[in-house]
Design a protein that fits this description.
The chain is mostly beta strands. It is globular. A hairpin with a 2-residue loop joins strand 4 and strand 5. The strands form 2 sheets. Strands 1-2-8-3-6 form a 5-stranded antiparallel beta sheet. The protein has one helix at about 10; strands at about 20, 35-40, 60-65, 70, 75-80, 85-90, 95-100, 100-110.
């Protein structure tokens, strides 16, 4: 049995918050094609650079601290109490915004490549699927 001990704040800094998933090298006990785990530390005002579309995974996002908003088609979910969470399934597009400095834990399954987002451009906010402007400046 392999055991790995770490610190989410320190380890997450290595890979944009991702602690476990397909993107870890083979042989690393944090490598998995079955599940991804992210320790997301977000400053107030952080916004996902673009909407995730064509989603093939299921995701669970749990608020550890702060105030965090998940945007889903036709619905905005505000997480404001420690332990608040949102779960969405395959085919559900999404984006997010940190209303306050926030820490969130995200679990997604399965772990598949193709969802990395390039850095956000300074001129705009994410757009909703179909090209509609996002809610945020």
């Amino acid at each position: 049995m392999t055991v790995h001990v770490g610190n989410a704040y320190l380890d997450a800094a290595e890979d944009a918050g991702w602690l476990l998933g397909h993107f870890r090298p083979g042989g690393d006990p944090r490598h998995s094609a079955d599940v991804e785990v992210k320790w997301g530390v977000h400053a107030a005002g952080d916004v996902r650079a673009e909407w995730t579309t064509g989603e093939t995974r299921t995701a669970l996002l749990v608020l550890i601290s702060g105030r965090f908003r998940v945007e889903l088609p036709g619905r905005s979910v505000l997480l404001e109490r420690r332990g608040d969470y949102v779960l969405w399934g395959r085919g559900v597009d999404h984006s997010w915004r940190a209303d306050e400095d926030s820490v969130v834990l995200t679990v997604r399954w399965p772990s598949v490549p193709g969802y990395a987002v390039p850095p956000r451009s300074p001129e705009g906010s994410p757009e909703a699927p179909g090209g509609a402007a996002g809610k945020y400046p």
